[in-house]
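Re: that chain you flagged

S.,

Sorry for the slow reply, it's been a week of failed gels. I finally had a moment to sit down with the sequence you sent. For the record, here it is as I used it:
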Amino acid sequence: MRVHPDDPHILILGAVPQELTGLDAALKARSEAEIGRRPVICGRLAGIPVRLLTTGPGLVNTVQAVTAAVAHQRPSLLIQTGCGGAFGEAGLDIGDLAVAVEEIDVHLGIEPETADGPIRPLPFPLMIHKGVDIRHRYPLDEKRHIWAASVLKNAFAGVCRVKPGPFVTVSTITATDRRAQAIFDQYRPCMESMEGAGAAYLALHYDLPLVEIRAASNRVGLRNRDAWDLDLAFARCAEAAGCLVKDIAENGWE
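Prediction finished late last night. Pasting the structure tokens below so you have them in one place:
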């Protein structure tokens, strides 16, 4: 089925289908389409047109998928949702939610001078956005992330923590406590993923509002898959995205 190009919509991103399953189940007037050789699920959530786009994991997949979707039809809002690794030092644990205030690509820069040293920023910008050099840190709109955090804190009060803070995007999944501590010491993040910086870069490039929310499936550090709770994180990240759409339906969007 073709996507109607004149239909304003919210584009909701997940790296894997399970991150969007809860939203898919709640859609009305559901249909399926293909954009950029990626499957897209279309429908209405709380009366608002939405498109659910599974980008695939990692930066490259995210950039290709979102670029194709935005080129096909500009959305009114990007919501990126999904699982992530929580930094315990930031006060988060499995099942908690976080809202990105900025995205940091920790693998983009200059090799550190020592084995444990920080990666240094590039000597040139990737882009200049509203007079600001963008190198490896991508700011998210303050008004939007404050709104998202407020909505989710009310919706999940007594259920889980909701924390706004910096997110880091990695190309190599952190699997040791030593590396986790080094990342935290340098950036003070609350959440780690593999896609966020790609969406954040494109949001700046296309001047689109982006809200990124993630539910913690694990703690960043020594890799122990037996301690992960993907099912909880899948359900919670979809529920959180749905709460934001519902709030827009009830209170409007500026």
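What I noticed first: The chain has a mean pLDDT of 93.

Talk soon,
D.
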